[in-house]
Amino acid sequence: MRFDEAYSGNVFIGAGSDLEKAQAVLYGMPMDWTVSFRPGSRFGPARIRESSLVHEEYSHYLRRELTEIAYYDAGDIPLAFGNPEKSLSQIAEFVSRLLDLKKVPIGMGGEHLVTWPVVQEVYKHFPGLAVIHIDAHADLRTDYEGEPFSHATPLRKISELIGGENVYQFGIRSMTKEEVSYAEEAGIHFYPFDVLEPLRECLPELAGRPVYVTIDIDALDPAHAPGTGTPEPGGITSKEMLAAIHAIAASEVRVVGADVVEVAPAYDPSEQTPVVAAKLIREMLLGFIK
């Protein structure tokens, strides 16, 4: 598995070529083996990289430029096609090595199940970890149609690992009654429908803590991001999502890892979905890497 060699494919805009000097490492997790509706998110990371070229390296929101930070694009992890358990193990191994090198992992999915092994490894290095989860779906099922390895289960697994009281969920608008009951019983900070205002209210209590941020692109309304496997009407705008990233960046939390997942380019011929995902990642890099 390679991440310390020169990546020969397209790289995200502004990426440096020196892994040793990098504060953060961007990488792709091209997996969609367990999706419940439409496949295709394995093509997300490559298209996000290509779409990043439409953006400037400078963010006027944050008054920072990508040249001001050191980050490296390691390319996509070569995952075992169609094999969820082996793929998750490969992701865990990759991220573990990044963390040993004291890099901040910034991932691109892929389906949301890819977040599970990343958080497992981050938690080993940061045992006081909290997770901020922005999504249309709760992802709190124990299984989907009898399969525990599903993109409907990662936050349940994460909650059971780090404790529900350390999980903060925003924007959820699609869930089962059982998922709501579990969220209440587990002490999850569960904020359906809205993102920005409840997030701003919660950030002060996370001050000083290590935080992992995971964003499912389907938190956005399909009008803003149609290119995803399980679109859900009634979501937030891209402007509100950017404001949420900026609120986290301006807070006193310590972001120790992040990802954007579930971009499926085939369902968006306009390409607005990978374009907005690329902008979210630019703002994460500029806002989270101090």
UniProtKB/TrEMBL annotation:
Keyword Manganese: yes
Cofactor(s) required for function per UniProt: Mn(2+)
GO terms of molecular function: agmatinase activity; metal ion binding
Cofactor: how bound: Binds 2 manganese ions per subunit.
EC number: 3.5.3.11
Domain of life of the native organism: Bacteria
Pfam families per UniProt: Arginase
Transmembrane segments: none
GO BP, one annotated term: putrescine biosynthetic process from arginine, via agmatine
Family: Belongs to the arginase family. Agmatinase subfamily.
Protein name as it appears in the record: Agmatinase
